[in-house]
Amino acid sequence: MKKYIALLRGINIGGRNKILMKDLKDLFIDLGYQNVITYIQSGNVIFESDVTTSTIDLSIAIKKGIQKAFDLDIPTLVITKNELTHAANNNPFYTSEIDITKLHVTFLKQKPNTTLVSEINSKTYKTDDIFEIKEKFVFLHCEKKYSQSKYSNAFFEKQLHVDATTRNWRTVSKLLELVNEAT
Question: Read out DSSP for 6-63?
């Protein structure tokens, strides 16, 4: 069995796209996944599967399941346990002294085109926030709140032509803890 993390974007925010975590967990079980664990109301699901398919195919299957069960079109991104571990261990802005509330990771559905990465890296933006793109991850250091940052999901999706969703560092750390504890 391989461990995965599904990252749903835009559920249970401001009363929109409401899905109870119990119902979401039941859906994952109905889709044939095992050892399903949800974390907080914003759509983080740890699960196991013995199906040999890509994370993109898993994302599509889960998105279709959500659409059918809840009549909601929810952007869904699936990463492996190894990818989450890699992201957590390779944040260039993380130090033991850093204020972790300033750290975020934008997860990309797939590795972006290297030309597009070069283009975004060569531009200058009027902001104190900084980012670094590594493989399928964008590591962010936001001086203020993430919600005030120019570097939103929409920004990276537009610049890199790839679906994205962002989690704060506390959530990334907790998901890693949970995925490592899961049997």
Answer: EEE-S-SBTTBS---HHHHHHHHHHTT-EEEEEETTTTEEEEEE-----HHHHHHHHH
pTM of the model: 0.92
User: Do residues 101 and 141 touch, judged by C-beta distance below 8 A?
Assistant: no
| pLDDT, tens digit (0-9, with 9 covering 90-100), for 57-96 | 999 999 999 999 999 999 999 999 999 999 999 999 998 8
Residue pair 11/71 in contact by the 8 Å Cβ criterion:
no
**Predicted confidence band of residue 182 (pLDDT cuts 50, 70, 90):** low
Which among 79, 73, 131 has a CA at the least distance from the CA of 102? Answer: 131
List the one residue out of 164, 43, 175, 176 whose CA is nearest residue 110: 164
Residue with tokens 């809840």, as numbered in its chain: 70
**Radius of gyration, CA atoms only, the chain:** 16
pLDDT tens digits for 73-82? Answer: 999 999 999 9
